């Protein structure tokens, strides 16, 4: 009896006839033998069609197959050490579902604009498939880490009435007869959730209307934002390094083949073990000035500055205690030096920039009201946020991780556009 299976599970059917629904990734012929490179979304396998061993109609069907044609293929699975998967199929039957004509993405080189215009098809390429498998594993590891460490998943709203950090980079829409905006961050809502549940995290899309074309930026991206009641800045840093080490190890444990497909240097990922080094903003400024960068104290770091700092380390590095004036209004000042805040950015190695930003939040009701006044924020719009300090305020901390930058770093990609199935960028809303 012929079992229907998928390529990922062919090891369970060695010596047995199976049927697989698949597509033709590529094919070649040596005259009396046709070699079909087949894929089904779970993996790749070579199907070998020997002319003398199959009926004429099977041979002709194999001969007619074109790139990305769809079919059901029947055959016997055998071990093949020379194959990348370790297995091959001796084909005995072919049932063509659809013959493709003029598939646009051929094995030749294509420009990035062409590939992005055909992103719906480019996803089928081995490298793009591998990236999406790794992305899925990263998502799974993120959820597992928080679920195993006492966090509760909470979903903040995507539509918000206003933003405490200004509306210049927000997407505006109408909410019936009111103005509304697509969320830039769920953090403030997660602080409310933490006061109810203790340790929480959100995992959802965020939107930034920034006219940026750098390799690190997307208009629509996914954020993971944990918030923790009764947790100070120091403890939050320990959570962050434990979290990142866990995610990287999960990818190493479960995605070796995919990492190999994209050509990632695994030895660099194997070094991602905490604790991670830490430097203060003051030390970072001093280092950059010594390296010839003309950046005064009080300015934020750009991509070249972060890259220069990261080059000193083989693991992520924390830059802590940024100036109060360049950070968000809700960050708690350092009690020993109110000119800086209890915050940290985690900079990934290899030039991938900031992947986590976090801080201890202000828990003093009077100080938070002062910050609202200094930043000219609407107390009416965010009275609910001030209520969190008015009714049972506690020390609490949190951070946000950008999923796509993290995927780019773990995969070793040049640009974040390949880290998400359908990227939204400054001049790209199609497909």
Automatic annotation (TrEMBL):
Q: Does the keyword Transmembrane helix apply?
A: no
| InterPro entries listed in its UniProt record | Aa-tRNA-synt_II, aa-tRNA-synth_II, aa-tRNA-synth_II/BPL/LPL, Asn-tRNA-ligase, Asp/Asn-tRNA-synth_IIb, NA-bd_OB-fold, NA-bd_OB_tRNA
Q: Name one GO biological process term.
A: asparaginyl-tRNA aminoacylation
Start and end residues of each Aminoacyl-transfer RNA synthetases class-II family profile domain: 132-431
Taxonomy, superkingdom? Bacteria
| Gene3D superfamilies per UniProt | Bira Bifunctional Protein, Domain 2, Nucleic acid-binding proteins
Q: What is its main location?
A: cytoplasm
**Quick check: keyword Signal in the entry?**
no
The protein's UniProt keywords, in alphabetical order, are: Aminoacyl-tRNA synthetase, ATP-binding, Cytoplasm, Ligase, Nucleotide-binding, Protein biosynthesis
Q: Which GO terms describe its cellular component?
A: cytoplasm
Q: Which Pfam families match?
A: tRNA-synt_2, tRNA_anti-codon
Homology family: Belongs to the class-II aminoacyl-tRNA synthetase family.
Please state what the protein is called.
Asparagine--tRNA ligase
Gene encoding this polypeptide?
Answer: asnS
């Amino acid at each position: 009896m012929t079992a229907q299976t998928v390529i990922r599970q062919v090891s369970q059917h060695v010596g047995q006839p199976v049927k697989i629904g698949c597509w033709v990734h590529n094919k070649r012929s040596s005259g009396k033998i046709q070699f079909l490179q087949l894929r089904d979304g779970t993996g790749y396998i070579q199907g070998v069609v020997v002319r003398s061993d199959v009926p004429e109609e099977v041979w002709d069907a194999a001969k007619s197959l074109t790139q990305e044609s769809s079919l059901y293929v029947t055959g016997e699975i055998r071990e093949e050490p020379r194959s990348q998967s370790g297995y091959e199929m001796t084909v005995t039957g072919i049932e063509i579902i659809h013959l493709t004509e003029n598939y646009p993405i051929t094995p030749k080189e294509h420009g990035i604009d062409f590939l992005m215009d055909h992103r719906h098809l480019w996803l089928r390429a081995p490298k793009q498939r591998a990236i999406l498998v790794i992305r899925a594993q990263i998502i799974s590891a993120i959820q597992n880490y928080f679920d195993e460490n006492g966090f509760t998943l909470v979903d903040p709203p995507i539509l918000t009435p206003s933003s405490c950090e200004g509306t210049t980079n927000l997407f505006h829409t109408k909410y019936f007869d009111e103005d509304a905006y697509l969320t830039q961050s769920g953090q403030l809502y997660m602080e409310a959730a933490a006061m109810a549940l203790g340790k929480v995290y959100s995992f959802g899309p965020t939107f930034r209307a920034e006219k940026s074309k750098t390799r690190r930026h997307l208009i629509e991206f996914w954020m993971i934002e944990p918030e923790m009641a009764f947790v100070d800045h120091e403890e939050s840093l320990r959570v962050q390094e434990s979290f990142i080490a866990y995610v990287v190890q999960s990818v190493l444990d479960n995605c070796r083949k995919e990492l190999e497909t994209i050509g990632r240097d695994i030895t660099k990922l194997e070094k991602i073990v905490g604790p991670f080094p830490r430097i203060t903003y003051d030390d970072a400024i001093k280092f950059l000035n010594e390296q010839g960068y003309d950046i005064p104290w009080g300015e934020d770091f750009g991509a070249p500055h972060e890259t220069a700092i990261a080059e000193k380390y083989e693991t992520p590095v924390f830059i802590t205690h940024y100036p109060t004036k360049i950070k968000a209004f809700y960050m708690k000042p350092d009690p020993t030096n109110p000119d800086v805040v209890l915050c940290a950015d985690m900079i990934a190695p290899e030039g991938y920039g900031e992947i986590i930003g976090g801080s201890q939040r202000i828990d003093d009701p009077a100080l938070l009201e002062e910050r609202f006044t200094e930043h000219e924020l609407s107390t009416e719009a965010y009275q609910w946020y001030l209520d969190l300090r008015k009714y049972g305020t506690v020390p609490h901390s949190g951070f946000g991780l950008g999923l796509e930058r993290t995927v780019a770093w773990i995969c070793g990609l040049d640009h974040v556009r390949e880290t998400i199935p359908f990227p939204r960028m400054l001049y790209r809303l199609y497909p």
